[in-house]
Amino acid sequence: MPSVPMYYMKAVPPAKPLPATTTLRGYIHHLLFKLIGYNKLGLYHNDVLYNFPDVLEAVRRLPPEIQDARNYRLIRAVQLDITRSILPENQWTTYEDDLKYGRYLEPYLEEVKKELREQDEWNATH
């Protein structure tokens, strides 16, 4: 049997902890989060929504400090895309951070959609 060099016999690193949820659905969400890759640019889930009129209205209603943070993330992501690079791994958005902070637009978006539904109902009856 041939001898194996010692540098091939490194200790196996411990397995990474499971995502925030241990359900199959949570695991699939975590896997998709890694595959989509917007986290490597420091973006959150709501940063990559397509700019439909309801999304634009929800963004307009955001408090100024949240708008500024969103604009900073988007400009940084465009800059990284132009240079064809990504952030250092310690600056990537984590799955847990994306779940906690990445849905910042949802309350405003729901409010806008509710107002649009009310407006459609009003227009249909009058």
What's the CATH superfamily of the domain at 42-126, by name? Cytochrome b-c1 complex subunit 7
Shape: globular
CATH topology of the domain at 42-126: Cytochrome Bc1 Complex, Chain F
Helix content: 40-55%
pLDDT averaged over residues: 86
Q: Structural class given helices, strands, pairing?
A: mainly alpha
In the predicted model, the low-confidence regions spanning at least 5 consecutive residues are none
Strand tally? 0
Helix and strand succession?
Answer: HHHHH
CATH class bucket of the domain at 42-126: Mainly Alpha
Major sheet attributes: none
What is the terminal separation in angstroms? 88 Å
Rg, nearest Å: 21 Å
Total helical elements:
5
Fraction in beta strands: under 5%
Short description:
The chain is mostly helical and 126 residues long. It is 53% helix and 0% strand.
Report on this structure.
The chain has 5 helices and no strands. It has 126 residues and is mostly helical. It has a domain at 42-126: Orthogonal Bundle (Cytochrome Bc1 Complex, Chain F).
